[in-house]
C-alpha cells in the first residue's frame, strides 16, 4: 500500500521521459515532446471517470501537486464532481471580485466623456452613491435581482420619486455595463423591480419662486462675490443654472451670449445653439465677474471646475428663503405675462422654451432676438433700479 501512492520523486519528475508517469492515487505527470509537462488527476465519481488538470510542471512542484490532488480526492469522496466544483468556486470568486460598487464606478468613469458640468463632477453618480450603494455596493453584481432593488429603493419610491427614478435609471446603465464586461447579470432586474414597486404616488411640485415684485429688492441686496454675481446674471438672463454656471468667456460676443446646443436642456444631439441678449446691466455684471475667471470660466469653483448649483441655493437658504435659483425663470415669465404685452412665443423664447412641435420648430427660422433684447433690457432696468420694488425685502448681507 505504501508503494500505491507517492511513487515519483522530485529528481525523477525532473528527468522524466516523454509519456505518462503515475504517482499513485490517480495523480499523473504527463510529459510532452516539447519538454513541457502537466499534472493530471483521475478520479471516479458516480461510476464516471473524470480527469482534471492540476497545473503545469515546474510551475507546480511535485509536493504542491500532491497537496492539490488530496484536496480534490476529498471532494470526490463526498460524491461531488471535482471539475464542476472547481468551476463553481471560480464563479463564486468572480462574483466576489465584481462588486456592484466597483462596476458602478467603472460605468461612471466610462460615461464621463459624454457628461456635462455637474454630471462629470459626480452629480450623475450621486443617486447611486446615496441611495443604492450603501445597501448593495458590496453585493456581487451577478447576484443582484429585482427583490434586492425593490427593497433598496422602496423607502424613497413614493416620497422622493424623481430621485428614485434617477437611481433606477443609473442602476440600469450599470447593469448594462456589467453585461458588456462579460458578467452574467439580469438586464431586466430594474424593470422587474419597477413592477414590484408599483406606480409611483407623488404630486409634482413646482420649484418655489420669488414673486416678480420682490425680485428687485433681492437683486439689489446681492454683493459682488462669485456666487452673488452668478445669481445676478441668472436673474437678468432668465437662463437655466447649468449653462449659466458653465458660461465661458468665449461664448460672449458683445451683447450676445451664445449657449452651445449641447448645453441646452431637452436638446440632446441638437445642432442649434441658443442666443441670449445681454442687457447693459448684464454686461456690467459680466465685466465684474471677469476678474474671477479661471480657465476661461466666468464662475469658477473654489478648487476646480465651476460653482455648483447648491452654492447659489445655499446662499438663499442662509437668508431664510424657501425659493430656489431656478424659480427666477418663473419670476421673469410671470412678469412678462403681467407687466408687458409680449407675444406668447416671444415670452416663451425669453426663457428658452421651444414652442410648437418639432415640425413647427423646424420651419420657425427666428429666435426673436431683437424683440427679446428690448424685453430683457426692460426687465434688467426693473430689477436693478433702486427703490423699484413695490415691497420692502429685508436681506442680510
What does this entry look like structurally?
The protein has 397 residues and is of the alpha+beta class. It folds into 3 domains: 10-91, Double Stranded RNA Binding Domain (2-Layer Sandwich), CATH 3.30.160.390; 100-197, DNA polymerase, domain 1 (Orthogonal Bundle), CATH 1.10.150; 212-384, hpI Integrase, Chain A, CATH 1.10.443. 49% of the residues lie in helices and 10% in strands. It has helices at residues 10-14, 62-77, 82-97, 100-111, 117-123, 126-131, 133-136, 146-157, 161-180, 189-197, 215-221, 226-237, 241-245, 280-289, 309-318, 327-339, 344-350, 358-363, 369-384, and strands at 19-24, 27-31, 37-45, 48-57, 252-253, 256-259, 274-277. Helix 8 (146-157) packs antiparallel against helix 9 (161-180) and helix 12 runs antiparallel to helix 14. The longest helix is centred in the middle third of the chain and has 20 residues, at 161-180. The termini are far apart.
Nutshell version of this structure?
The chain is α+β, with helices and mostly antiparallel strands and 397 residues long. The chain has helices at 10-14, 62-77, 82-97, 100-111, 117-123, 126-131, 133-136, 146-157, 161-180, 189-197, 215-221, 226-237, 241-245, 280-289, 309-318, 327-339, 344-350, 358-363, 369-384, and strands at residues 19-24, 27-31, 37-45, 48-57, 252-253, 256-259, 274-277.
Q: Which properties best describe this structure?
A:
single chain, 397 residues, alpha+beta, Double Stranded RNA Binding Domain, DNA polymerase, domain 1, hpI Integrase, Chain A, 3 domains, four-stranded antiparallel beta sheet, three-stranded antiparallel beta sheet, 49% helix, 10% strand, elongated, Integrase-like_cat_sf, DNA integration, DNA-binding, DNA binding
Amino acid at each position: 500500500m505504501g508503494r500505491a501512492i507517492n511513487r515519483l520523486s522530485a529528481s525523477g519528475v525532473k528527468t522524466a521521459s516523454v509519456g505518462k508517469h503515475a504517482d499513485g492515487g490517480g495523480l499523473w505527470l504527463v510529459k510532452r515532446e516539447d519538454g513541457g509537462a502537466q499534472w493530471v488527476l483521475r478520479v471516479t465519481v458516480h461510476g464516471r471517470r473524470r480527469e482534471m488538470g492540476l497545473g503545469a510542471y515546474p510551475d507546480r512542484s511535485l509536493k504542491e501537486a500532491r497537496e492539490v490532488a488530496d484536496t480534490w480526492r476529498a471532494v470526490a469522496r463526498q460524491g461531488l464532481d471535482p471539475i464542476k466544483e472547481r468551476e463553481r468556486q471560480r464563479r463564486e470568486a468572480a462574483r466576489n471580485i465584481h462588486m456592484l460598487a466597483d462596476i458602478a464606478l467603472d460605468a461612471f468613469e466610462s460615461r464621463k466623456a459624454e457628461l456635462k458640468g455637474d454630471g462629470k463632477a459626480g452629480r450623475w453618480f450621486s443617486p447611486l452613491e446615496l441611495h443604492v450603494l450603501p445597501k448593495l455596493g458590496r453585493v456581487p453584481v451577478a447576484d443582484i435581482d429585482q427583490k434586492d432593488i425593490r427593497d433598496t429603493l422602496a423607502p424613497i419610491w413614493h416620497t422622493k420619486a424623481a430621485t428614485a427614478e434617477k437611481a433606477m435609471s443609473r442602476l440600469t446603465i450599470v447593469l448594462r455595463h456589467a453585461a458588456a464586461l462579460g458578467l452574467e447579470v439580469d438586464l431586466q432586474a430594474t424593470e422587474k423591480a419597477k413592477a414590484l414597486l408599483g406606480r409611483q404616488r407623488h404630486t409634482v411640485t413646482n420649484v418655489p419662486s420669488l414673486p416678480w415684485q420682490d425680485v428687485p429688492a433681492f437683486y439689489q441686496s446681492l454683493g459682488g462675490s462669485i456666487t452673488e454675481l452668478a445669481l445676478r446674471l441668472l436673474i437678468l438672463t432668465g437662463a437655466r443654472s447649468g449653462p449659466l454656471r458653465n458660461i465661458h468667456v468665449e461664448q460672449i460676443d458683445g451683447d450676445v451670449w451664445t449657449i452651445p446646443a449641447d448645453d441646452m436642456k431637452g436638446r440632446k444631439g441638437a445642432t442649434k445653439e441658443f442666443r441670449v441678449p445681454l442687457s447693459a446691466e448684464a454686461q456690467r455684471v459680466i465685466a465684474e465677474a471677469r476678474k474671477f475667471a479661471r480657465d476661461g470660466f466666468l464662475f469658477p469653483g473654489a478648487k476646480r471646475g465651476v460653482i455648483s448649483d447648491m452654492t447659489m441655493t445655499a446662499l438663499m437658504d442662509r437668508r431664510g428663503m424657501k425659493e430656489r435659483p431656478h424659480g427666477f425663470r418663473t419670476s421673469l415669465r410671470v412678469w412678462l405675462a403681467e407687466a408687458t404685452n409680449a407675444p406668447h412665443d416671444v415670452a416663451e423664447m425669453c426663457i428658452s422654451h421651444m414652442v410648437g412641435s418639432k415640425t413647427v420648430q423646424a420651419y420657425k427660422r427666428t429666435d426673436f432676438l431683437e424683440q427679446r433684447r428690448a424685453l430683457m433690457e426692460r426687465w434688467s432696468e426693473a430689477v436693478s433700479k433702486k427703490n423699484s420694488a413695490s415691497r420692502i425685502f429685508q436681506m442680510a448681507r
